[in-house]
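Input:
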Amino acid sequence: MKKVTMADVAKLANVSKSTVSQYLNKRYEYMSEETRKRIARAIEELGYQPNIIARSLKQKTTMTIGVIVFNLLHMLTTQVLHAIEEACQERGFHVIVSNSDDDPEKEKKYIEMLRAKQVDGLIIFPTGKNADVYQKMTEERFPLVFVDRMVPGVKADAVLLDNQKAAALAVEYFAERGYERIGVVAPPPVSHIIPRMERIEGFRQALAKKGLPVVDDYFITTEIPRIQKELTRLFASGRLPEALFAINDLTLMEVLYFVKGNHIKIPDELAIISIDDVPFAHVYTPTLTTIAQPTFAMGKKAAERLFLQIAKKSEHQPQVFRFSPTFIERGSAKEKTS
Amino acid sequence: MKKVTMADVAKLANVSKSTVSQYLNKRYEYMSEETRKRIARAIEELGYQPNIIARSLKQKTTMTIGVIVFNLLHMLTTQVLHAIEEACQERGFHVIVSNSDDDPEKEKKYIEMLRAKQVDGLIIFPTGKNADVYQKMTEERFPLVFVDRMVPGVKADAVLLDNQKAAALAVEYFAERGYERIGVVAPPPVSHIIPRMERIEGFRQALAKKGLPVVDDYFITTEIPRIQKELTRLFASGRLPEALFAINDLTLMEVLYFVKGNHIKIPDELAIISIDDVPFAHVYTPTLTTIAQPTFAMGKKAAERLFLQIAKKSEHQPQVFRFSPTFIERGSAKEKTS
DNA sequence: TTGTATGCGTTATCAA
DNA sequence: TTGATAACGCATACAA
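Output:
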C-alpha cells in the first residue's frame, strides 16, 4: 500500500540510490554481478515499481503524447487513433485522448491542459478555429501534427486525404459509365473545414473537366438533419439526378435512408459512390462502391512525423502529406442502362 | 522556448515562490490585492504555464486515468470510451487509452506501465487472462473497474450487459412469433470471455424455458473466419433453421454476408436478431431488429465508479452492474408466415 | 564500482 | 499576509 521507492530498495540492497538508479537504467557496465543481484532481489521482494512521474520531472520528457479529436465516435477517428496507438506502443509512448466535440473552446482548453501535463507532442484533428493557438505552438517548435483537416496559414505537419482526387475518382467513374446528371451530398461548405471544401470543389472541377453540367440543384450541401428534406425537394422537382456522390459516411447514411424510404432502385434509378469505406459496404444490397481512406497509413504517418519532431525539434520542415484514396468498385454504380 | 517556472514568476513579481503557489491554487484569502495583481501580471507577461508533472509528484495524484481495451476498433469500445472521456472531462481528468489487442501479455505490460505513470485508476475491458494481476490490484485497493467482461474471482467493480436477458429477449421474440428452429451464431465459448458464455448459455436456457428444441447443429460457435463455412454446411444439411441469433455485430456481419451470398430472404426464409445496434440497422433491407447495449450509460457508470473509488479508497464495496439491453424492433424478424 | 550532493518544479509546513 | 525551507522520487555530475 505505502509506496515503495528507490530509497527503500537501496536500503534493503545495501547500496545507494544512485546505484539502484543505474541498475534501473540498465547501465550494468560498472556494476558487480553481486550488487546487481542484490538489487534485483530487493526490487522483487518489495515489489518496487519506479515512479515515472518523478523521472519525467527530471528528464523533461513524459513519453506521452496527446491526441485531440473533434469527434471520437467517427469511424475515421477510431481507425486513425488505432494506428497512432499502435505506433506509440512500439516506441513506449502513451497516448492521452481528448474529444473536443468540434468546440474550439474545448479544444483550446485541452491544448493548454495537455501541454501543462508536459506531453511530448500533440496530434490534432483540428476544429480549425484556433489558428492563433496552433500558430503559437509551431512558433515554439512544439511537436504538432494535424490529421484529417489542416489549417491554412499554420505551418505544421498535416496528414490528410487527397480529397480532390477522391472527388475526381467518383466523377470519372460515373462519367465513364455514361452518367451526366451527377449530384453531391455534403454538409455546408465552411472555409475552416478543409476536406469538405476540397471534396465539394473537387467534385465541381471534376465535373467541369469531364464536360459535365454543373447544376446548382444537384449540390445538396446542408446540415445533416436537413438532408432528407433537401433530397425530397430535389426528387420532387422532376429534375432527377442519375448519380450521387456522398462525401462521407454520414451523408451516405442519409442518402441510403432516403433511397430506402422512397423505394429508389440502386444503381438503376440512382447510382451512389461515397467516401469512407463503411463496414457494411459488402453486405448491403447492392454492395456499395466506395472510396476508402488509408486510415491506418495515415495514423501511422502522423505518429511518425510527431516522433521525428520530438527527436529533433530544431530543423524540422513541416510538410503536408496527401494520401491517395482507394476506389473500391462494388455494386452501387454500374454501366448506365437507360 | 526555455520553460518559465514559478521561480521566474516569483522573481518578476517580487514575491516568493510560495506566494505564487498560493495564488495559483486560488487561496487568495490572505493575499493583498496588490500582490495578487502583481503576480497576475507577471504570469501574463511571461506566459507562464504551471507544470502539472511537478505538482503530481508532490500531490501523489495525476488526475489521469488509464483505459485498457481489448479492441479499440470495436464499436462498443468506441462508444463506451466516448462516455468515459466525457465524464472525465467534466471532472478535469484525462484518459490514457491503450489497446491490449486481447493479448494478456500486452495487457499486463500496460497495467504496469500505467501504474508506473501513477494513473489514479484503471478502467479495463479485460482479456480476462490476468486474474492474478487484477487480483493484486484489488488487494492493494487500487481503483479499478471492469467493463464489458468481468473476471470471476476478482472482486472488483464491473459494468456489463445483462447478457442472459439479451439472449432471452431474442428467443422470446422469436418464440412468440412462431419460430421454433432457432440457431445462434457466436465465436467459440471460452470460459474467460464472460459475455460470450452468458449469451450462448442464456440462449440455450431461454430455448428450454420456452419449450423449444435445443439442437446442437444450430449452435454455430466457431472462429469468425470459419463461420461462413459452418453456415454453408448447416444450410446444405437440409435441417434449416428458421431464425438466427447473432450475439454481436461481428457475427451479424458474417450472417448478413452469408445471407447475401446465398440469396436467402429475410425475414421470410430466415429471421435475424442480433446484439449491438449497428449504425446501418435502419437503412438495411430489411431493417434490422437488434438488441442495443446502453453503451453511453455503461461508460458513464464505469467512470463514476472509478471516481468513487478514487475519492475514498478504503471502504469501497465492489459491485457488478448489469445493464438492461434494449430491444429495437425493426424488420428482420416478423410473424412467421409459412 | 559505488556513493554524495544537487536539482527538476511544485506544494506544504511553519515561522516571521 | 508572506517567505524560507523541506519534501516528492528520481537522475546525474562528480567524487571516492
